[in-house]
Amino acid sequence: MVRTAFASIMLLLGLAMPSPVLGDCTCAVTRMKGGWCTECKVGHLASVRVESESLFEILDAHGHHINPATIRCTSCAIAIKSEGFCERCGMGYVDGLAYVSMLTYQIAKGTPLDPTTIACRKCVTHASGFGWCDTCKVGMIGNVAIRDKRDYEHASKAFEKLLIANETAKKCETCALAIVTDSTCPKCKITYKDGKKRPTADP
């Protein structure tokens, strides 16, 4: 049901659904570059292990090809040319691909690193979570290095939401999806904003 809803969103946005990758375990690759291992049924995104396929799909880890001619939003048209992010539509664009989450958009602009190759101890520590190093002028979102501080600030907020959603998915997957999309869980009737439950209005 969730996959069908995701497919509908992709269709409305003029995007293609990601093709499943078949074969042996790909965790060695996905842990580094991000992706879903169909053999182990687990995803990796910026060093975070994501066991909910629905959550991983909606984050749109690797983006989608688009036809700029089909884009009707003026802000998106500008963002495509500048590789920016349209706040109105919640879409970011990098290297001709569209990303439907701020986190994966920022990760796409960053550089995945093997933590064992990082010389700075502070950056190594950040690679196991997230943080900005004033000495190196780089922010780590998991194993992904982001060199623009403003981009890092956007990414870190989105990354915190992922961590909350990933933990929530163990109890309710649709709440997890609502957390990353700032929406309402249809099962629990809980509305989320910035990773937090919004106050429920009195009847």
Task: Put the structure in a nutshell.
This protein is an alpha+beta fold. The chain contains 8 helices and 13 strands.
Helix content: 25-40%
Low-confidence stretches: 1-8
Radius of gyration, taken over Cα atoms and rounded to an integer in Å: 17 Å
State the major sheet. 4 strands, antiparallel
**Outline:** globular
Describe this entry's structure for a reader.
This protein is α+β, with helices and mostly antiparallel strands. The protein has one domain (about 1-195). The protein is about 40% helix and about 20% strand. The protein is built from eight helices and 13 strands. It has helices spanning about 1-10, 25-35, 55-60, 75-80, 100-110, 120-125, 150-170, 175-180; strands at about 35, 40-45, 50, 65, 85, 90-95, 95-100, 110, 130-135, 140, 145, 190-195, 195. It has a four-stranded antiparallel beta sheet, sandwiched between helices. The longest helix has 20 residues, at about 150-170. The chain is globular and about 45 Å long. Mean pLDDT is about 90; it is low at about 1-10.
Characteristics of this structure?
single chain, 203 residues, alpha+beta, four-stranded antiparallel β-sheet, 13 strands, 38% helix, disordered N terminus
